[in-house]
TrEMBL record:
Family designation: Belongs to the zinc-containing alcohol dehydrogenase family. Class-IV subfamily.
Record bears the keyword Metal-binding: yes
Cofactor requirement: Zn(2+)
Keywords in alphabetical order: Metal-binding, NAD, Oxidoreductase, Zinc
Complexes and interactors: Homodimer.
Keyword Transmembrane helix attached: no
Any one GO MF annotation of this record: S-(hydroxymethyl)glutathione dehydrogenase [NAD(P)+] activity
Pfam families: ADH_N, ADH_zinc_N
Protein name: Enoyl reductase (ER) domain-containing protein
Domain called Enoyl reductase (ER): residue spans: 19-370
Regions crossing the membrane: none
Amino acid sequence: MADNTTPRAITCKAAVAWKPLEPLKIEEVQVDPPNSTQVRIKMVYASMCHTDFTCLKGNTLFPMFPWILGHEGAGVIESVGEEVKDLKVGDNVMIFYVGECGKCANCASGKTNLCSRYPQIVCDDETSKIYSKGQRMYRMFSSSTWAEYAVVESNYVVKVDPRMPLSHACLLTCGFTTGYGGVWKGFKFEKGSSVAVLGLGAVGLGAVKASQILGASRIFGIDVNDMKRDIARAFGVTDFINPKHFDKPISQVIQEATGGQGVDYCVECTGVASLLNEAIASTKMGVGETVLISIPPEEKGELNYIPMILGRTLKGSNFGGVKIHSDIPKIVEKCEINLGDLITHEISLADINKGLFEYMKQPDCVKVIIKF
């Protein structure tokens, strides 16, 4: 007699990127059962990030096609591998692109969130469980959330606090948490510090919220879009600055607003080379710190910050330095805000191209979520 409890392949829909910068195609795909250490998740919500669009362009970091994009999402576990101990069928979960074993040299060091045993994998089809038209699909960050089902290594999965809607939980799986962690983990933050955040998308607003929670006395929010002013203030910005309204560098505007001193900390969320220069120059000479948390756009630019460092510190960050099993529950507990305020557009999977090519380019867009 056949074992009806054994998971089998599922046929469902997914948004497939066949070629660079071409519209995604909604295809029928087959999603195999999880292996012994994986879980298969029925997606409920996924969200869009500018990194997804960067991957669609195709470059030296993301040259492979075809693949299924999406690295932010939340859903319900449909089946589990036999070695999975802490997760079960029916659990509401979030999917992340970094893991945490807690035991490797990196995890034990306390210096980084990049686990050696469960590293960030940009794209690897050898463990992919998704096929379309007889072809194995590459997976973005080993998750590919723009599909009705995803198969993920269980260590990259975290249970959702039952108080949090899945539509909000998916927002914590990349952007907002990256910005929040950039401040929380990136700086030795003192109450009363001053902060500047360049770029007020979901990442920047996460940095703003962390600064507010940690007791910043003044938070400068910098964005070229005046439509971000109200939401920036709602998240904690005290001084909103649109560089287009000034005929001087933004670093000079911030220096002048702080009596010529500059801010204690700066978070650069745009990836624009010239703004990294401005971010560093906005901080206090000798003690100012800047954290870079962004993927650069196609634009070319020179970094001229070496002459202006003058004792300042510049550091990079991956997922804001956040450890998914140790830190995500703390962020959920601290963030007494309505993450739903970040959601400006909600679409179905069928409208994926409208979200990616139209809504994400609109000036009022903060976050586009996909409801399955």
